[in-house]
Amino acid sequence: MRVLGVDPGLTRCGLGVVEGMPGRPPVMVAVGVIRTPVEDEVAQRLVRIEAELEQWIAEHKPDAVAVERVFAQHNVRTVMGTAQASGVAMVVAARRGLPVALHTPSEVKAAVTGSGRAGKEQVTSMVTRILQLPERPTPADAADALALAICHVWRGGVAGKLQQAAAARAHLEARAEAQARLQKARLRAAVEAQQGKAARQGRTVSGGSR
Fold it and tell me: Is 7 noted as a catalytic residue in this protein?
């Protein structure tokens, strides 16, 4: 599974592509940051984020996109920009037909470090170790994007398999139920046919006795 992790932000939007599967060490494919000028209009900055996301998806062809779930912060202006960038990432992925997963910061931290309260330094250190990188990914937005991708590879992959197993089980149960209904209908038809035959024979015998 190849996952594009997106750490949304209006000024800096972290991107990280990781490939792997549950139970195996993931491998980094690419990492980077989309930067937009603060002096530009918000709409233009979002257009730039959209265009670069399109390029990343076209180039790296991920199977899924993992985006950090936005939570309210003290700085309303910051959280609004983050939410806007997050929305753009989800729209770009959906337009391409890619599944989108939202992971909370605590989920990502727990998946990468084992603690949902880990700090950014600890997350960056563990991302570097997990991916066996020669140097720490910077800035923190890039490391967070890789952490998101790792989280989804490990957790999303397992969830996906569970969903597939559940779907397969539901299909088998529905098929068995349909076969049971068909068997009951055939049995009922056979009984009715037998009863009709017996009734006709009874009328024949009765008529002949007269």
Answer: yes
